[in-house]
Amino acid sequence: MTSSREKRALLAITPGEPAGIGPDLCIQLAQSAHLRDDIILIADPEMLTRRAEELGMPCEIRHYQRGERPCFGQGVLTVYPVAMAVQVEPGVPQTANAQYLLDTLRQAVNGCQRREFSALVTGPLHKGVINEAGISFTGHTEFLQHLAGRERVVMMLATEGLRVALATTHIPLKLVSTALTQERLSQVLSILISDMKTWFGIQTPRILVAGLNPHAGEGGHMGREEIDVIEPVLDHFRNQGAELIGPLPADTLFTPKWLAQADAVLAMYHDQGLPVLKYKGFGNAVNITLGLPFIRTSVDHGTAFDLAGSGDADTGSLQTAITVALEMSANLPYSLS
Ligand SMILES: NC(=O)C1=CN([C@@H]2O[C@H](COP(=O)(O)OP(=O)(O)OC[C@H]3O[C@@H](n4cnc5c(N)ncnc54)[C@H](O)[C@@H]3O)[C@@H](O)[C@H]2O)C=CC1
Ligand SMILES: NCC(=O)COP(=O)(O)O
């Protein structure tokens, strides 16, 4: 075991919606016989104790103290406590807990920004439940962007052999074309290229860029976004040395011939890229927010209310999110305080 001063990685996990599978996954992973000192949870301790009992996996909850070595494993969880408004039954969310959820994220971000935590790993939230509480919320990605004061961040999901970044995230499909401006696409590409280098050591990433329209617009006969927006931006970046291929028709971009040449794909909207990624790797993929001043990874799935409290939820994606956060933590440009 290392002392806290020597530590390079300390992950803060927010288990997310308490009525969902996020708490289950943390409790299930903490059953491991391997005792580790690089993970804490930011959550309601009573909720975790109750869920552990419901799962038949009793846990010892220790309160996190800064500077003291945390424990995760052998049935022990170290928790930075944040109190929920009301306790929940598995599968039955309560809008009264919306502020609790956002508070866990605020605490985690504060800890990352004061360099206490090396990374934030998030469990799934239910966006609808938070909105039903009267809080406008489209996802962690946009909320973390807001907390960090960044003009733009980039959602990228990754699984073995495929990384897919998105030019737009959680907006209605009918707004995608309007949102897809040269300015936005330039910001997204700039972050993607820079963060592939910073976090993954890829100096000049080869990026496949999808068109927006069927057949990438068919030369302007099926839409003009490729000609008016995407191509000028790609040309600009190519002139600076970027290796960008496209705009390619999205239906044939995701074939081995193209993917074999690429470090990442840039899709124009959420459901252009993520169904392919999840078909390939659901359960073993990670969601990474690029462009933040700290590391954030997440699971590839949602709250799965149908599985909460059952013990049947698959921990694969949370395990992947933890592994990737640790790998990225090794490239942090500063030491933890
Ligand atoms: N990182 C996050 O916070 C994410 C949150 N969501 C949110 O989750 C909510 C529910 O979304 P859905 O579309 O229903 O997707 P979902 O991922 O919660 O469920 C889809 C299907 O996959 C299954 N599933 C999900 N995770 C699983 C796991 N770990 N092991 C085994 N089976 C699993 C579920 O049982 C369900 O059949 C929505 O509000 C959505 O916005 C969705 C994706 C990511
Ligand atoms: N499809 C990914 C997703 O919905 C997760 O979004 P976020 O909460 O990580 O922004």
UniProtKB/TrEMBL annotation:
Cofactor note text: Binds 1 divalent metal cation per subunit. Can use ions such as Zn(2+), Mg(2+) or Co(2+).
A GO BP annotation: pyridoxal phosphate biosynthetic process
Residue numbers binding a divalent metal cation: H170, H215, H270
Cofactor: Zn(2+); Mg(2+); Co(2+)
GO MF terms held by the record: 4-hydroxythreonine-4-phosphate dehydrogenase activity; cobalt ion binding; magnesium ion binding; NAD binding; zinc ion binding
Catalysed reactions listed for this entry: 4-(phosphooxy)-L-threonine + NAD(+) = 3-amino-2-oxopropyl phosphate + CO2 + NADH
Sequence positions that bind substrate: H140, T141, K278, N287, R296
Pathway linked to the protein: Cofactor biosynthesis; pyridoxine 5'-phosphate biosynthesis; pyridoxine 5'-phosphate from D-erythrose 4-phosphate: step 4/5
Location(s), subcellular: Cytoplasm
The EC number(s) this enzyme carries: 1.1.1.262
Keywords: Cobalt, Cytoplasm, Magnesium, Metal-binding, NAD, NADP, Oxidoreductase, Pyridoxine biosynthesis, Zinc
HAMAP family per the UniProt record, alphabetical: PdxA (MF_00536)
Family: Belongs to the PdxA family.
Protein name as annotated: 4-hydroxythreonine-4-phosphate dehydrogenase
